[in-house]
Amino acid sequence: VVPQAMLKILLSTATAAEVFYEETFDAGLDKWVTSTWKGGNGPAGTWDHTSGAWFGDEKEAKGMATTKDFHYHSASSKLSKPFSSKGKDLVLSFTAKHEKKDTSFCGGGYIKLLGSDLDQKNFGGDSPYKIMFGPDLCGYDVSRIHAIFNYDGENLLKTDDIKLEYDDKNQFTHLYTLHVKPDNTYEVFFDKKSKSKGALHDDWKFPQKTKDDASDSKPSDWVEEAKIDDPDDKKPEDWATEAKIKDPSATKPEGWDDDEDGEWEAPVIENPDYKGSWFAKRIDNPAYKGVWKAKQIDNEDYVENVHGFDDISAVGFELWTVNSGSIFDNIIVTDSLDKAWEHADAHWAKTTAGEKDAKEADRS
User: What is the distance between the alpha carbons of residues 312 and 90, in angstroms, rounded to a whole number?
Assistant: First the structure.
């Protein structure tokens, strides 16, 4: 029997979850406005409502797909009402299927959270956003999950990449989830498995609690060289540093006339005693003081709570794609990770079921 107090907690937890936006594209693209923004590299592409060339569950697989190679694809959808994520959990989750994924694939697959000042018809790369999140793939070199936060007008990239493994970069439908918590920590999931987590201040260049004291300078006698040559180590007298020598066994040929033939020189051969360049042994520097760091003082720009955003009013995709055929689906913005997993189990799980068999059948 569950105690009444515990029951109340469980009930309040169950009813506390709020869904701010949800999209499975069952009704088509009616909620979405396609932008005419062309960017700097090419024209603006259109979007298609499709399940793709192969799928397990046709209805669940239906999403919003890019249609043109070497095009910008930008579209956005308004939330029913703006909300603030300050003081609460923020979970952003969606799926992406790069159906034309091969070694030459190149294209972004990230979603953006946007404000109410969004001009939907002109939504593009210069439009301000709150968060940008999702995969960024290009050939073998670029394979990461972007998580970018706007802070004080600057878009802050994660200081180290969230890498995708080789098996993560296939043509099937994958789930990307970002969880930002009110204690200023975060976690990024790929197919419901944790890829990265930690503190926002540690992994993005938000203003830190302390900063270098500009009036502090390194002392002139500060030694930062950790290793030095051993002053007692001397090159052996018989150490041969010449790679080639004149052949000591060679003699001037009989009949050689210096006046007619020039001054005779012995031929050059490999030096059998050659030992290479000599270097003194390296030892710890007894005067080493470590890497100098300026004294730390309080940073007046430090803000403890950087997790939240006011006026989250729309979601959008703004992408440059070399290869078309990327399908986006199953978007949810909520304040509950459990709610996001419920949504994933109800939709993404059905989308992925049978996908591999469908891909093999399409290939044959």
Answer: 11
32, with CB counted inside 10 A (0-12, 13-18, 19+), is buried
- CA 16-17-20 angle, to 5 degrees, is 130
Q: Please give the model's pTM, rounded to 2 decimal places.
A: 0.80
Tokens representing residue 182 in the block: 């009110």
CA distances from 113 to 116, 194, 209 (A): 10, 22, 27
- Angle, vertex CA 199, rays to CA 196 and CA 200, nearest 5: 95
Element (H, E) at 342: helix 337-346
Which residue's entry shows tokens 């994933």?
344
Q: For 79-129, what is each residue's pLDDT tens digit?
A: 999 999 999 999 999 999 998 776 577 888 999 999 999 999 999 999 999
Q: How many CB atoms lie within 10 A of CB 125?
A: 12
Q: How far, in Å, are 30, 228, 291, 292 from residue 219 at the CA level?
A: 66, 20, 12, 9
Annotate 263-312 with DSSP letters as a single string.
---PPEEE-TTB-----PPEEE-TT------PPEEE-TT--S--S--S-E
